[in-house]
Design goal:
Elements: H1 2-23, H2 29-40, H3 44-52, H4 54-62, H5 70-82, H6 84-87, H7 91-100
Biased composition (Low complexity): 25-44
Region (Disordered): 25-46
Signal peptide: 1-25
Length: 101
């Protein structure tokens, strides 16, 4: 039974990722749909990058961008590779969105 919970838990992590990515799309409907389709294909390795960055993101937000950890930097690069709209979003806004997941 626990093996059935793993895919379910992963899907719960991917859904907020898709919703968060589409929120960076702004007013362009094309960007929003593109962001969602890119995010829905993320693997558990991608989720690990994002989840591992939460502590670094919290420090970054709390310090108003003064503390930048390596895990956060990796997550920012990953998000921007996956979502064109994230490329135009500030590091602070992406870190806040990462924490809101």
């Amino acid at each position: 039974m626990p093996s059935l919970l793993v895919p379910f838990a992963l899907s719960l992590l991917v859904l907020p990722l898709a919703a968060g990515a589409s929120s960076f799309a702004g007013t362009s409907a094309g960007s929003a749909s593109g962001a969602s389709s890119n995010s829905s294909g993320s693997s558990s390795g991608d989720d690990k990058v994002i989840l591992a960055a939460r502590d670094d993101a919290a420090a970054f937000v709390a310090s108003d961008g003064q503390i930048r950890g390596a895990r956060l930097q990796a997550a920012l690069v990953h998000l921007r590779e996956q979502d064109a709209a994230a490329r135009a979003t500030s590091d602070l806004a992406l870190a806040q969105a990462l924490l809101a997941r």
